Amino acid sequence: MTARLSLYQKAENELYKMESSVKTKFYDFCHQFRSDPDHPSLDLKPLKGDGRIFRAKIDRSYRALLARAGVGVDGIPQWLIVAVRHRKDVYEELTVAINRITGEIEFVDLGVVGQSVLQRAGLQLTPAPDEQTAAVEPTPAPVVTPEPAVAAAEPLLVGCTPADLSRLGVTDALIDLALTVGTDEELDQLIAGAPRLTAEILTGLGSGMSVDEVEREITQPAATELEPGFEDDMAAALSRTAVTTVDDDIRNVLAEGDFRAWKVYLHPTQRKIVERNYGGPARVSGGPGTGKTIVALHRVARLAAALPPGHNKPILLTTYTKNLTADLRSRLSSLMDPVLLGRVDIKHIDQLAQSVLNENAAPGSQRSLISGEAALDVLREVLFEHDEQRWGAEFLFDEWEQIVLGQSLATRQDYFKARRAGMGRALSRPERAAIWKLLEQFTLRLNGLGRETWAQAAERAARYEMERAHKIKVRAEHKADIGGGDLVHLDDNSSAMRYVRHRYQHIVVDEAQDLSPAHWKMLRAMVASGEGDLFIASDTHQRIYDRQVTLSTVGVQIRGRASKLTLSYRTTQEILDQAAKVVSGATYDDLDDGTDSLDGYHSLLHGPAPEFVACADWTDEIAQLADALKQWRAAITQPGADGTVRDPSGTMAVCVADGEMAGRVASDLAMKHGITTATLTKEGPQGNGEVHIGTMHRFKGLEYQKLAIIGASDGILPRAALLEQYAKTDPTRYERELMKSRNQLFVAATRARDALRISWHGKPSPFLPL
Ligand SMILES: Nc1ncnc2c1ncn2[C@@H]1O[C@H](COP(=O)(O)OP(=O)(O)OP(=O)(O)O)[C@@H](O)[C@H]1O
């Protein structure tokens, strides 16, 4: 190899979209370039405008644009492919620069801003002559043909000065053009072609953020400390730039499409969160699709890479549901080396609690699990037998789960002292005494049946783990007291106890907003406090189970180690705008005493506005849904430029309010409209049908190219029958249920990548932004 070649992120994305014949020639070009960049067939030449940018020939029509990026530590010259262009789109003014905030290499193409803006700014682009092809074909037309002067438009970014844009990190060559932009369309066009930080800044400013807000939310998180003279050190800049190294594997990468992009590429803001050394628990928050899961996965990979050799599993990756755990496992296995992957325990939170209980249970004493609904029936029986009228079964069940189990209250005295913030109705001491007695009867009854709920299991597991952590602490203190010697005199010096350690060195939690206090206590006890102990990804706007926790009260102190992601990689700005309205106006916590918001949440992707469709009745709603699905299918299966046809399976989904409705939709679509479906279950999609159908809960963490939400009617969303009972008796619970329902719609709407359609019949849901 006489040259090392890397591929700029934007160039990689452009290549995915090219015809396979161009891709094949591109592989050959890379192969040739790496062995001899000066080979005459490549015709490598600098462009006139910028001595750092070169053009080389891929075939008769396509050119690679490359930047020289110094020499590697092994003495091999480094080159970065910044773009692949048709030769008629190559002009002399193309440049590469090093960004003053991120220190990354940026490729700047003024051609992307459109003729009107260029003309208003008085810029004319010069086509780069291409002698070799000029001999065979006529000289290509200039990129910009003079046109009548374009009327001056009022600049869109009023209130921003060139100095502001420069300070924020907009690339120099685009500052004046950005301030010339006069319409939203022009701004979108500029953003689409701009380097990443510039695009984010301009999107922020364009959506109304102030210069200070952009600086705080976008610029500062992306900033890197740069040495004087960094502007000229391309080798150092290359090491800070997100690139794919071009080796023989590039063929597979390109063939897989952008599915693999996240594996090689982390945005600098994401990378910082992954790579920081945290002195204790850390949290990343951010709206849907901002890459929290990706960050959590990369964090696991980084922690695993730093482990000393061994065969144990010192890292736990956990989340709330079973199907998400399977998804995390498969994503992680494509990111990590199998040997390192073997050092990661991947379990969903209830599975983890069960393994603790199994380990601690005497043979034959395990209890079987009972659903919340069935347990509530047992409580109803107890209340009926005691002729108890003062409190309803739902109220007491909630009190039990939220307060008694939630705070691990073991005695009546503890319950007397317990804080009941957020529970609405106050309870006097005699009332608490009576409730405690009833709940005791209830748990004894469950016990007698050999059953327990998931929440009880979690609470018992937490207690076992806390005892274990306590023993570890006592031993460590004793060891310190006796100067680190052997522990022969300690009471419990059984061989089992001698080797008891914390179960994990690092724990990473995804979808953390849905974990209960008992889950947190268990996790806290499983890992020693200290560097890199807990890493948490969460978004409280997506809390869809009735769980509330204040992390600082369960021993998880985040202070100073919280970060936020604001750029969505999944959803278009059009979808995001509407989805954000569903949760606007409500207040969200930050898993602690502070609040969380979607401020600065934005997307660089654009697409059609979401459709809101009022239908006459159920039959009409299903018929219109079937038509939409067929149109989506036709669009997805449209043959690509190289003749390939995509398989539409699993790219479209229908989201409904409950399981019964899911069944009805599946059978109506199949019987009346010939559309096959697969139902989303706890285990993932069941069946081979093309369109996935599931309840809002099942869509958590997933994403689809096109998504329909149906049955979004008042009475269903929120579920009136369930809520009415609380409206008068327990207003706080009522508010919590409303919030849960609102969040479910928000989660569902933000699963769509590029098309969202929401329909209803009757009165529309009050949550819809109509
Ligand atoms: N830096 C990146 N470059 C390209 N794609 C990215 C990047 N980060 C994330 N993505 C993509 O964005 C999508 C959303 O990412 P991810 O699932 O991690 O988001 P999230 O914040 O966990 O979302 P949610 O809260 O909705 O579950 C995924 O398809 C992921 O591959």
TrEMBL record:
One of its GO terms (molecular function) is exonuclease activity. ATP binds at residues 286-293. The keyword Nuclease applies. It catalyses: Couples ATP hydrolysis with the unwinding of duplex DNA by translocating in the 3'-5' direction; ATP + H2O = ADP + phosphate + H(+). It comes from the Bacteria. It holds the Pfam family UvrD_C. This is DNA 3'-5' helicase. It comes from Streptomyces polychromogenes. The lineage of its organism: Bacteria, Bacillati, Actinomycetota, Actinomycetes, Kitasatosporales.
